[in-house]
Amino acid sequence: MNFHSGKAVNAAAVKASLERALKLNPSVKNALHIRDIHADGQSIRGLKRSELKRIRSRLGAVFQHPSAALNPRLTILQSLLEPLNQLKCYVPSFMAGISSERRDIAEHLLDMVKLPASYLDKFPHQLSGGEKQRVTIARAISTEPDFIVLDEPTASLDVTTQATVLNLLKDLQDELGLAYLFISHDLAAVHFMSDRIMVMKEGSVLEHFSKEALFHSDRHPYTQSLLEVFSTCCLPTEPILL
Q: Which of 30, 63, 92, 137 is the S-S candidate for 144 at Cβ 3.0 to 4.6 Å?
């Protein structure tokens, strides 16, 4: 599958499939094969560590539980700058004209996710779940990635905070030209976030299609069973205004 800037692909129900696969016995695990991974048309197999480091800097991830993604012993400033510190003096192009001082960069990153600079000196336990997830989003974009994996990024948040985070992710995608892989069981969020949708079951891809084709009558029976959980009114196509 190819990912393009400013596009979002969803893999509905993929997480449960991966979890089941990891619980398989060793003999079954050994029978599983992972296809080659390509970046810019080039296989990453056999690349030198320096080349892999360059590719990794172009990838980001936001996970389901922000509390687990942030080291409780580090301040928000320290956690936020971890990826950039691996790249030494690198400054993202979207921060052109801003001071290259690390704290100034961190303040700008927090501003991009609508958090005050005063949070830099706080610890994760002093932030709400939604605020911590915004920090992980800021950290994910800090290295100016082309592609971000969003693994159920709103599943642990309340409904109002979910809407805020989804709107933020959409705004950042438009501003930075990001490509997303949005993994979720929530078809309301899937429909809102994605350009194309992929449905998986027990480790296999059942079908993939454009967002507009989600309600077509020829959808796979499993997809139709997922749709039964959500009514059309629960699948917004425009940002939720708070």
A: 92
